[in-house]
Amino acid sequence: MYWKTPLQATFLLPFLYSTVTAQVACNNSPQLCNRPYSNITHLGAHNSPFLRDESTSFSTSGNQYFDTITQLEAGVRLLTAQVHKLNNTEGNQAWHLCHSSCDLLDAGTLQDWLSKIKTWMDSNPNDVVTLVLVNSDDATPQDLGPLFQLSGIDKYAYTPTSSPPSNGVWPTLNALIQANKRLITFVASITPSPQFPYLLDEFSFVFENNFENESPTDFSCTPNRPSGLGTPEQALATGRMFLMNHFLYQAQIFGIQTPDEENVNVTNAQSGRGALGTQLRNCATQQGGRPPTFVIVDFFNVGPAVASVDAVNGVQGSVVGRRTLTDKVVMGSTSGVEGSVVKGKGSLVAVVVAVVVLVGLGV
């Protein structure tokens, strides 16, 4: 194609520009760009940095097979983690990502994790990412804020105009992207500070269903945290967004709970009793047709969980730029299934030994 005069080329530029911009994808789909952040279902990786892979000897405490960056590449847009205070060998305090206890599973420092996410966001300017931090040791904004600054990720941090936003309506993904404020951070039980206003108290903006479930029949859409919100529709009327916990635990000895890998093919499926897709639809029905804003799962690649989220978002067929992973349970390394099972049992034995030691010490 060529144009005989510069005027002809100039005349066509607006049409060419609109064609290009129409193909821009927000969070992997052009159809999501003009939708409010609060009116999209964001797939979340429960305990994102806690892995069940070779790096942890396939620890039974691990909730994911693939690391945080791989999760983002494959369509996860919400990352949860537990933050714990830990004294290093020099006696200095540091904030680590630990699963229940840093003696059980320590995934490194919060700052290092944030730095990796920031690097990914640098390379993916059309993506909005959400963090939910479980504040296990009562960190203050003054504890966490400097780590966001040191990692550089604070440049992307979004601060809402009110708590919660008026009528519960948030900016569109495109508005957040254009402003380059593409990181929303919720911290469970934190007192807001004007010094770090982007560290949002989770339960001022979000409500959750129960998270301690051991059977597919336990799943519910009923608000559990914060308490006193009533029905799902009443909770939404407060302007809060619904975070749907959808994962199971297995009960072990000494009251230990470990992620339920055995039933994840059911839990993360698109249909069937206790399936992710089924529960998303059930909760949407109970909320006047509005699906949960967030859903967090274990072993997100199985199902795959993102297929159920795409369905409820109505974006099947328009997804671009997403990495495809195996949708199978990752049983271990090249040593095969039997070897991986042995590793898993060994991890559980280590947990039991730790508990016995603590009991013996009277802790």
TrEMBL record:
<dbReference type="GO" id="GO:0006629">
    <property type="term" value="P:lipid metabolic process"/>
</dbReference>
<dbReference type="GO" id="GO:0008081">
    <property type="term" value="F:phosphoric diester hydrolase activity"/>
</dbReference>
<protein>
    <recommendedName>
        <fullName>PLC-like phosphodiesterase</fullName>
    </recommendedName>
</protein>
<dbReference type="InterPro" id="IPR051057">
    <property type="entry name" value="PI-PLC_domain"/>
</dbReference>
<keyword id="KW-0732">Signal</keyword>
<dbReference type="InterPro" id="IPR017946">
    <property type="entry name" value="PLC-like_Pdiesterase_TIM-brl"/>
</dbReference>
<feature type="signal peptide">
    <location>
        <begin position="1"/>
        <end position="22"/>
    </location>
</feature>
<dbReference type="Pfam" id="PF26146">
    <property type="entry name" value="PI-PLC_X"/>
</dbReference>
